[in-house]
Amino acid sequence: MLFTKTGSLWVSWVRINLIGTRNFWELNPSSSGSWIWRKLCKLKSLARPFLVCEVGSGQTASFWHDNWTGLGALIDLTGTIGPQVVGLPLNSVVRDAIRGSAWWISTSRSRNPIISLIKGLLPEVGNMMVCLEDDVYLWKPDHHPPSPHFSSPKTWLALNPAGPPVSWHKSVWFKNRIPKHAFICWVVAWNRLHTRDRLRRWGLSISPSCVLCNGFDESREHLFFECVFSQEVWVFFTSRLNLNPPASFMDCLQWVNSATRDLNLSLIIKLLFQASVYLIWKERNSRIHSTTTRPPAIIIRDINQIMRARLDPLARNQRNATPGSSLLSTWFRFFP
User: Please, what's the b/e burial string for 57-73 (b: 16 or more CB within 10 A of its CB; e: otherwise)?
Assistant: First the structure.
């Protein structure tokens, strides 16, 4: 079953008190029940493709509405005229379609395309008439066989398929990152920051100049790191690490993940890159929305403090590190 014992009791109560003799798939979610029940009913169209009925006695499964053939709801294949053409009411269960030991429609000689379609879709009756087992509803969110257990992760992936991987994801979503820094870096990677060049393309009448240097038009590429302000911040750290990163943001984003084979230094570089992006963007916004302006030296000082605060607990967890080889020791070797 898709539900625990407690869940089964709740489902039974819902069937008796909220569904009654009506078909669940035809319920009007705004007509009755609590707020949460109405919200659940509105998700019917999303859930329907994942729900498969394994027929036992055929006394519960809806002939027209449930996916008991593995091909979806028959009413979707025939259209609303299907029940009238076939001669089986819309509220019929699977067992209602059996006469003796065969489907009632098997004796029809009609050449109606809908009847021919239904004939071709119906499975063998088998021992359904003598079966005492209930019809069972299973969950099938992917290509694997239907399961009696609901899986939130699999359902989420089915509703939100993963897009193609990007080559720079390890430069953003790495272990021990600072979440807010990684998020802003991810937004910059997709070029979704509200930089002035984008705002002007949207029709806003604003100055195109960079608020950090006032010398060039503001864009992602200018802010990170062509601007003399942001360049002073970023070069301060890379020069002390004896590194020469690429000029463009996207090239630099790729570079930080392979700048060195030293694991400690690799993490430090990625943390520095994201901290620089985050605090430069923060300073840019502060200058627009307030009268406060800070020089690059203050941004560098703040990044230094952030790095020490982040590396300290990580260094404490490096229990097998030899003296002088921890993350914090590596940091102080370059930034005493």
Answer: bbebbbbbbbbbbeeeb
C-alpha triplet 172, 177, 180: angle, nearest 5°: 80
Residues 197-209 have a mean pLDDT of: 95
CA distance 148 to 136: 8
pLDDT digit string, tens, across residues 307-333: 999 999 999 988 777 777 899 999 999
User: Model's pTM, two decimal places?
Assistant: 0.68
| Segment 91-142, tens digit of pLDDT | 899 999 998 888 989 888 888 999 999 999 999 888 888 888 889 999 999 8
Structure tokens at 320: 């097998």
The percent of the chain in helix, strand and coil, each rounded to the nearest 5, is 50, 5, 45
**What's the CA gap between 259 and 209, in Å, rounded?**
32
CA 78 to centroid of chain Cα atoms: 34
**What 3-state class would DSSP assign to 93?**
strand
Give the C-alpha distances (Å, rounded to integers) separating 2 from 11, 54, 147.
10, 12, 8
296 token code pair: 């690059």
Nearest to 47, CA basis, from 150, 163, 161: 150
* CA-to-CA separations, 23 to 75, 86, 275, in angstroms, rounded: 13, 19, 56
